[in-house]
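Dear colleague,

Following up on Tuesday's group meeting, I ran the structure prediction for the two-component complex that the binding team flagged. I've pasted the input sequences exactly as they went in, so you can double-check that nothing got truncated or mislabelled along the way. The structure tokens for the whole assembly follow below. Feel free to forward this to whoever is handling the docking comparison.

Inputs:
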Amino acid sequence: MRKEIISPSVVKRLPRYYRFLSDLLAKGTGKISSGELSKIMGTTASQIRQDLNCFGGFGQQGYGYNVEILRDEIATILGLNHKYSAVLIGAGNLGRAIANHIAFTEKGFTLSAIFDVDETIIGENMNGIVVENIDKLKDFCKKHKPDVAVLCIPKNVAESMSKQLIEYGINAFWNFSHYDIAMEYPQVSVENVHLGDSLMTLCYKKTLTEEKENN
Amino acid sequence: MRKEIISPSVVKRLPRYYRFLSDLLAKGTGKISSGELSKIMGTTASQIRQDLNCFGGFGQQGYGYNVEILRDEIATILGLNHKYSAVLIGAGNLGRAIANHIAFTEKGFTLSAIFDVDETIIGENMNGIVVENIDKLKDFCKKHKPDVAVLCIPKNVAESMSKQLIEYGINAFWNFSHYDIAMEYPQVSVENVHLGDSLMTLCYKKTLTEEKENN
């Protein structure tokens, strides 16, 4: 229940807090003040106090925050202890990178299966998981009821695929395709990664800097 | 000059406008009203009119927007016609996916070189570019003066690598590492892609949905 009162802007910052606190913990830092944390994170101490107060505020005046308790609290709010089961659809270059590069288990998920249509990829072992034929997706979902689908497929395929996956009971998507799932299915949880949009944004920033320098 | 008055929140939406308008153009749509566009994009007509008014507003009462002119205008604002030269550092799983998956040329960039430290990867051909030894980076930068670096390397390497790259004259980064370049070098343009943060955010959304269902 507590989560519902955390504002979206604070939620957006929680993964970054989690990352920095995990780094501090790995370095053996036991406690930290909002002032020190703000310097490391490039923000203000008052912003940090305000953010962390939203969910209980474990800081003590003149003592600071217990790094481990705070990090674990943020992990709980993010739901990282859930180990939701994820299926990856599309084992091309991007899907392969996602399967191999991302530590799903640290981020609240377990990658349980990978599916593709490409006969040359099916049967390949990716990070301990054998890529299966997409034909077997329906049966897999029926049997194992995965929680989340990771879509590393082109936009034109993503529309029908997400429709199927929702019919198979999946209600959360990590979406690398350019198909807007959330528009069609407002009830599902979607996190989009639009690499193309990100690259265009960089182009804008670079252009702006150049124009400023030239003026 | 005009760009400086476009608010960051509008800028953030421009790549998405660009994508939808490109799709419309590919389907042969010549003009579109703010009402129709809002339905396709899942937003409101007034939001669209407000956004597009920021940079001249090409819509005509009772006629709508000329899709091609509007798309080209957004491309110009984003700087997509620049063809900035980009070097990719790190040709592991993620770097490989980025090199092969992203149409750099459509997004304002040309991928001109790929560098790695791994002897087993150096010499490999990725999307027409041969992966070079990182030893050659300095000379390459001196000779070709690339505009942008794409960092697909771990956080612990990214710190020293970005320092070097800035010394070599690069002032813009597409950053997939978890190192916060912008904090150390506020003068450079940085666009971060934090896949781990994105996955944690999905975990939060999924957890929230489950809690609502269970209550």
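The longest helix of chain B spans residues 195-214.

Cheers,
M.
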